[in-house]
Description:
Blueprint: E1 2-4, E2 7-10, H1 16-29, E3 37-40, E4 46-54, E5 57-59, E6 62-64, H2 80-94, E7 106-112, E8 118-121, E9 132-138, E10 140-145, E11 156-160, E12 165-168, E13 177-183, E14 196-202
Antiparallel strand pairs: 1-2, 2-12, 3-4, 4-7, 5-6, 7-14, 8-13, 9-12, 9-14, 10-11, 10-13
The structure holds N-(carboxycarbonyl)-S-(naphthalen-2-ylmethyl)-L-cysteine and fe (iii) ion.
Fe (iii) ion is lined by residues 121, 123, 177.
Protein name: Alpha-ketoglutarate-dependent dioxygenase AlkB
InterPro entries: Alkb, AlkB-like, AlkB-like_sf, Oxoglu/Fe-dep_dioxygenase_dom
Cofactor: Fe(2+)
Amino acid sequence: TEVAPGAVHLPDWLGPRRQRELLDACRAWARPPAGLRTVRTPGGGTMTARQVCLGLHWYPYGYAPTAVDGDGAPVKPMPAWLADLGRRAVTDAYGTPPPAAEAYDIALVNFYAGDSRMGMHRDAEERSPAPVVSLSLGDACLFRFGNTASRGRPYRDVELRSGDLFVFGGPSRLAYHGVPKVLPGTGPPGLGLTGRLNITLRVGGLGP
Ligand code: MD3
Ligand code: FE
């Protein structure tokens, strides 16, 4: 369903088997070097969701080839299968494949414990207008999708559950959004994940 122009939610896009494969991959990426780390914000705080990056390292607010606020190691590469998953996600959401120039080359994996959240923000460090692809695993969350003008109202609250796909492109690409809360204990019992994982796939447009 189209939640707003360019913002398409496809519930249960990943079946149980694909969810399990993606979770196993996330667990491997989370290991050092350049594994899961706590993101330090410029104001001296820390984000409550922990993160691992592929392709390029996100730090507030920019991209770098090494784990700037982690162990300094080069980030792990973006696997071709994950770039292809991004391409298929856009194709399914919009009914047409993305241009060849828009190859998914960055993945940010956020891990939310039961009390983690993410404040309202927008994602503007990428230099490409390509849609952001979001995949959710484990516990459901309340996702708040806002507007492009401010962090405040109007916004819509949508529940994101394990296996859900969300694609944010066009006029929604620069909308404010956040995760006000995780709903602990709501993940698929068979998955074996306590907490929530969100995988976003992005096109950096930042050159080689
Ligand atoms: C709308 N992640 O990684 S996913 C993020 O659940 C981020 O971890 C949240 O916001 C999470 O930056 C929300 C949905 C999402 C991701 C990127 C977007 C929505 C977006 C970029 C533009 C507009
Ligand atoms: Fe975001």
